[in-house]
Amino acid sequence: MSIPPKPWPTGLAEQCEPLVRRVLAPNASPYTYTGTQTYLVGAGGDVAVIDPGPAGTGVAGHADTHGEGHVDAIIAAIGTARLAAILCTHTHRDHSPAAAELKARTGAPIIGCAPLAMDDDGPRADAAFDPDYSPDRVLSDGERLAGDGWTIQAVATPGHTSNHLCYAVLESGALFTGDHVMAWSTSVVSPPDGDMSAYMKSLQKLHDRDDRVYYPAHGPAVEMPRQLVRGMLGHRRQREAQILRLLGEGPHRIADMVPVMYKGLDPRLTGAAGRSVLAHMIDLRHQGRVTNEGDLWTIAA
């Protein structure tokens, strides 16, 4: 992860390719980089919106992001076209809350990922999620949605969250990757909803595809997607090996491992790094390679 660079222009519709435009929300932070990018797909009589972004309320940050004026900017970008669908990759609060207002103002249905379903894991385990997300239709893996000159296909990619979907535009070879794959940072995988085993399988699934370009929800477009995903798979395997080396030296607590594993990390991101280490630990425990007593982890006998 890294600190956002000089802010990108918010509220403006930028052309990415003939069928794709993006509008940046004003919610830059160490977790969202320059902010959440909302994408418009379509160049004819109707369009689809992907990841409408945060609501106008809240404060800058991660769980409580703000998007003042963002829905107005999306509607201005839509112009005279009909909004055919509002799609969300997942329901973190920097991605889906604006869907409700956009639906109320346009009448367009909310289509895409499922609402969050998560067992309780202590106070505010779902604090980063949008509790009001209510889709009119949930897409399963491979389902398609068509409009004027465009066809969007859902690609199930659980891991970052259990309900995460990517969206492929069949006419252009573009894939909207939400938070699953980003060029500026690795994705945070935070239990109990985040699952490292599922995340690795979803990365491999994308590596096996032949998409031309990725448009993530944060950061620049990915022009060499398979190369990036191959590197991300390798990075996660290196993290796993790093954990096993540290535990080979003796029992460790995650809080003590993070400073060793993440040299030079922005202190504001320490908690997120710890959650990803925990996700690796849980995956390794499922493999029978590590065990724990409370917060103390050790190599399995």
Written account of the structure:
- The structure is a single chain.
- With 301 residues, this protein is of the alpha/beta class.
- It has helices at residues 70-78, 98-106, 196-207, 225-248, 254-261, 270-286; strands spanning 13-17, 20-24, 37-41, 46-50, 82-88, 110-112, 137-138, 144-147, 150-156, 165-169, 174-178, 213-216, 252-253, 290-293, 296-299.
- Strand 5 (82-88), helix 2 (98-106) and strand 6 form a beta-alpha-beta unit.
- The longest helix has 24 residues, at 225-248.
- It is elongated, with a radius of gyration of 19 Å.
- 44% of the residues are buried.
TL;DR of this structure?
It contains six helices and 15 strands. It has 301 residues and is an alpha/beta fold. Helix 3 runs antiparallel to helix 4 and helix 5 packs across helix 6 (270-286).
As a percent range, the share of helical residues equals 25-40%
Low-confidence stretches: 120-126
Query: Structural class from helices and strands?
Result: alpha/beta
Give the termini distance in whole angstroms: 34 Å
Order of helices and strands: EEEEHEHEEEEEEHEHEHHEE
Largest sheet strand order: 1-2-3-4-5-6-7
Q: Largest sheet, described in full? A: 7 strands, mixed
Query: How many distinct helices?
Result: 6
| Number of E-type strands | 15
- What is the overall shape? elongated
Query: How large a portion of the residues is in β-strands, by DSSP E?
Result: 15-25%
* Radius of gyration over all CA atoms, rounded: 19 Å
Mean pLDDT: 92
